[in-house]
Design a protein that fits this description.
Layout: E1 17-28, E2 34-58, E3 61-73, E4 83-86, E5 89-97, E6 105-112
Antiparallel strand pairs: 1-2, 1-4, 2-3, 3-6, 4-5, 5-6
C-alpha cells in the first residue's frame, strides 16, 4: 500500500531567517513576586511567515497584535513560552507542535511583541 503524496509544510531551503532563540528564566524579585527574563540559548534558522493582524482591547486602551507562523527544525526543541528574536523584532511562541507528524519540523504560532 502506498501513502498518498502530501505537500511538505516547509522545505529546508526556506529556513532562511537566522533568529536568536531565548528561553524564559524566573527569579524572585525580593518583594514576594518573581521577575521573568529571557536568556539567549543560541541561533536557529527559521521560516518566518506572516499571519494575521488585529486590534485587541487591553485595559482602557487598544493595542495591535500581529501573529506569525515560524518553522524550525524539530531537533531545536522550541517550546511554548520561548521567544525568537530577529533584529529588534521579538516573537513570543504561544503554541509549538509537529505540523505533519513527520518529526522533521516544529511549527510555532507566535505573537510579535509590538
Amino acid at each position: 500500500m502506498t501513502r498518498p503524496m502530501t505537500r511538505p509544510v516547509t522545505r529546508p531551503g526556506r529556513l532562511s531567517q537566522r533568529m536568536v532563540w531565548e528561553r524564559p528564566v524566573t527569579a524572585p524579585d525580593g518583594l514576594g513576586g518573581e521577575t521573568t527574563t529571557y536568556l539567549p540559548i543560541g541561533h536557529v534558522w527559521a521560516d518566518l511567515r506572516p499571519g494575521t493582524a488585529r486590534d485587541v482591547a487591553l485595559g482602557e486602551g487598544r493595542v495591535g497584535e500581529v501573529t506569525h507562523e515560524i518553522f524550525v527544525r524539530r531537533e531545536v526543541g522550541l517550546a511554548a513560552g520561548d521567544r525568537l528574536r530577529l533584529g529588534a523584532r521579538v516573537f513570543l511562541c504561544v503554541i509549538c507542535h509537529d505540523p505533519d507528524a513527520s518529526g522533521r519540523f516544529t511549527r510555532a504560532e507566535a505573537v510579535e511583541e509590538v
